[in-house]
Amino acid sequence: MPFLSAALDRVKPSATIAVTDKARELKAAGRNVIGLGAGEPDFDTPANIKLAAIHAIEAGKTKYTAVDGIPELKQAIAAKFERENGLSYKANQIIVGTGGKQVLYNALMATINPGDEVIIPAPYWVSYPEMVALAGGEPVSIVCTAEHGFKLQPADLEKAITPKTKWIILNSPSNPTGAAYTRAEMKAITDVLVKHPQVWVMTDDMYEHLVYDDFVFTTPAQIEPKLYDRTLTVNGVSKAYCMTGWRIGYAGGPVPLIKAMSTIQSQSTSNPSSIAQWAAVEALNGPQDFIPANNKVFKERRDLVVSMLNQAKGIDCPRPEGAFYVYPSCAGTIGKTAPSGNVLGNDQDFVTELLESEGVAVVQGSAFGLGPAFRISYATKTSDLEDACKRIQRFCGNLR
């Protein structure tokens, strides 16, 4: 359609949202569908956080706020960075956005010029390369294989950096793989970045608190203080605090970058929801004891899903360190014939036939930059996960 912007030619719709929407449609049509595509905790927002939002409404805190966030939330964010990450940020170094996605998008829109390159380790969250493309930049993917735990290797990073490299986007624990970098692994990455002063670091720490088996989370500016002045540390309340719909993300970084991001935000959405901001103050300042309790359930679900998927013919499922995703290979099923009579030529065929045959909705690995594989979110009730894994076992067992 000539009326539409040519920028749309550079981006694709979100595969994860597409799968979730398809599952909803099938459910509405009466199909028994288990949707494992959405990256959203099934736990409710804690009561104290909901109560803070109610109190904010009752107190009339429903007006416009400062574009980049209320002072009370910025103070809570600064305290969180200091307490949990050993990072010191002042109020003018912090921005609050409508979800982590807006914060990332604002940063790219504020910094990318045509031809600028952004290094993105793959598998990656589907939105990273699309946001870079929308901003007019060039996403540069580095494939990180299962053999290396889906983690970027320092030598590969060194080879990928060029004079045009402006950013690297790091995500640990990772969406879609759940892979998380140890302190030593992160230090090896930051050692490379220190040598290239033109490269800025965008670190998406949204799954920081969702780690298992005594794993210790670290973030790049915490590991290497020399990177502090060129690192944007992004986080939010969506995942660990079960607040996906509240839409609050935030970041700490250099004053000029934060100011530029605020300018972008001022001309797009302006401030995030005032009510959600007050809820986020309580989330960060209030009791944190529900997080380990939720993590215990997530870990049990992870172990269940990994065990059951590894019993499915042609599936190989690594055990991730964090987040609430697994990223199994379905290479052993490619070339086989599904019950429909269709031959599985790739992971897109696998997820399509799985949905049609067994009513299980997952996302193909090719959407995340590395296949043949698929992503499962185990942030759903355990009984559904067990049922879904049995259906996957049956589907794989019926391939010929």
Short account of what is shown:
Helices cover 39% and strands 12% of the residues. The strands form 3 sheets. Strands 2-8-7-6-5-3-4 form a 7-stranded mixed β-sheet, with helices on both faces.
Topology of helices and strands:
Layout: H1 15-28, E1 34-35, H2 47-58, H3 71-85, E2 94-97, H4 100-111, E3 117-122, H5 127-134, E4 138-143, H6 154-160, E5 165-171, H7 183-194, E6 200-204, H8 220-223, E7 231-236, E8 249-252, H9 255-266, H10 274-285, H11 290-309, E9 325-326, H12 347-358, E10 360-361, E11 363-364, E12 374-377, H13 382-397
Parallel strand pairs: 1-10, 3-4, 3-5, 5-6, 6-7
Antiparallel strand pairs: 2-8, 7-8, 9-12, 11-12
Helix pairs in contact: 2-10, 3-10, 4-5, 4-9, 6-7, 11-13
Q: What do you see in this structure?
A:
It is globular, with a radius of gyration of 21 Å. Helix 2 (47-58) crosses helix 10 and helix 4 (100-111) packs parallel to helix 5. The longest helix is centred in the last third of the chain and has 20 residues, at 290-309. Helix 7 links the parallel strand 5 (165-171) and strand 6 (200-204). With 400 residues, it is of the alpha/beta class. The strands form 3 sheets. Strands 2-8-7-6-5-3-4 form a 7-stranded mixed sheet, sandwiched between helices. A 3-stranded antiparallel sheet has the order 9-12-11. It contains 13 helices and 12 strands.
Which descriptors would you attach to this protein?
12 strands; alpha/beta; three-stranded antiparallel beta sheet
Uncertain stretches of 5 or more adjacent residues: none
**Averaged pLDDT, please?**
96
Largest sheet: 7 strands, mixed
Shape: globular
User: Using DSSP, what is the number of strands?
Assistant: 12
Helix tally equals 13
